[in-house]
Write a structure and sequence with these properties.
By secondary structure, the protein is an alpha/beta fold. It has twelve helices and eight strands. The protein has one domain: 3-Layer(aba) Sandwich (Arginase, Chain A). The protein binds zinc ion (ZN).
Length: about 325
């Protein structure tokens, strides 16, 4: 998958009207059944998307594992090697939090990262929307993982786009309720990449990093305050004049989320995504959707919001409900 050699022009042209979405069974099966992380959300969401009216507008693809050299764009070699040979210490595993640890997590992580890169390559080539049905692993730092994140798919994809795909400027728009601390730190000195994080001020990570733009929202905020801040983030994003937008689309700002501390409704979340799609579409920019967090208990409210996210992206700009004013 290095250097874009895996991109076949014919298939890009033929499928330009479909929303390409990467998925692998390991997204669920690569996590231990007893892990606290809601691993079932991936296969449950796939089943719902498969049964949806939007399915004919989706091209669901299977990623290859990432070439491990590409991980080094954003990560320390020693950390990468130790993870891939199952030699992380217990403390390091605990900090990642996807415990109990299972060796299947190595293949899962490589496929998840591969899905992010393939989605990025596809978006750049087709100048459209694409997505990975996992990831948005924004808490992963250069030499350690944290908060359910092993490697940082946003940072690796952004650097891959700049170094290998001819992209000049990348904006990372992180609307997950948690701050994109790993992304901010890894990319702190990258002038061609703009990091923007909208997050709850009193949520994890409690020691925040410094993004290019941090827009913190008070706990318990509802749709109006949330969407106003998202609007500001989008203005900042477009003022950077990116050639590519990477969207961390976590839905954990939902009121039903167990970890979010915000009170955004399903409709507010949907409106958020539509604001992003609108702004990106108006500028004719490629967009990659990274799934991000969603921890409602039971998981249904998160699944509803992820379902809206991917079906609206697939139907864009012809999705079904009337649009309000932006
Ligand atoms: Zn989150």
């Amino acid at each position: 998958m290095g250097g874009g050699e895996g991109l076949q022009k014919e298939s890009v042209v033929k499928e330009a009207t479909s929303f390409a979405l990467w998925y692998h069974p390991l997204y669920t099966a690569g996590l231990h059944p007893d892990a606290r992380f809601p691993r079932d959300r991936y296969e449950l969401l796939l089943a719902r998307l498969e049964a949806s009216k939007a399915r004919t507008h989706m091209d669901i693809r299977t990623p290859d594992p990432i070439d491990k050299e590409l991980l080094l764009l954003a990560h320390d070699r020693d950390y990468v090697e130790r993870f891939l040979t199952d030699n992380l210490g217990e403390k390091e595993q605990k900090r990642i939090g996807l415990t109990p640890w299972t060796p299947a997590m190595i293949s899962r992580t490589l496929c998840l990262m591969g899905g992010a890169l393939e989605a990025t390559e596809h978006a750049v080539q087709s100048r459209g929307f694409s997505g990975n049905m996992a990831g948005g692993t924004h808490h992963a730092h250069r030499d350690f993982g944290s908060g359910y994140c092993v490697f940082n798919d946003l940072a690796v994809s952004a650097l891959h786009a700049i170094k290998n795909l001819g992209v000049k400027r990348v904006a990372i728009l992180d609307l997950d309720v948690h701050q994109g601390d790993g992304t901010a730190t890894i990319l702190a000195h990258e002038k061609q990449i703009c990091t923007i994080s909208v997050h709850c001020s009193t949520n994890f990570p409690f020691r925040k990093s410094v993004s290019d733009h941090d827009l913190a929202i008070p706990a318990q905020s509802e749709d109006e305050g949330y969407l106003e801040t998202v609007g500001q983030a989008l203005e900042t994003c477009m003022a950077f004049e990116p050639d590519l937008v990477l969207f961390q689309a976590g839905v954990d700002a939902l009121k039903a989320d167990a970890l979010g501390k915000l009170n955004v409704s399903r409709e507010g979340m949907r409106r958020r995504n539509q604001l992003v799609f609108d702004a990106v579409h108006q500028q004719n920019l490629p967009l990659v959707i990274f799934m991000g967090g969603g921890y409602a208990k039971p998981i249904d409210a998160s699944l509803d919001a992820f379902f809206d996210l991917f079906t609206d992206a697939a139907m864009w700009p012809h999705y079904e409900t009337p649009r309000g004013n932006s």
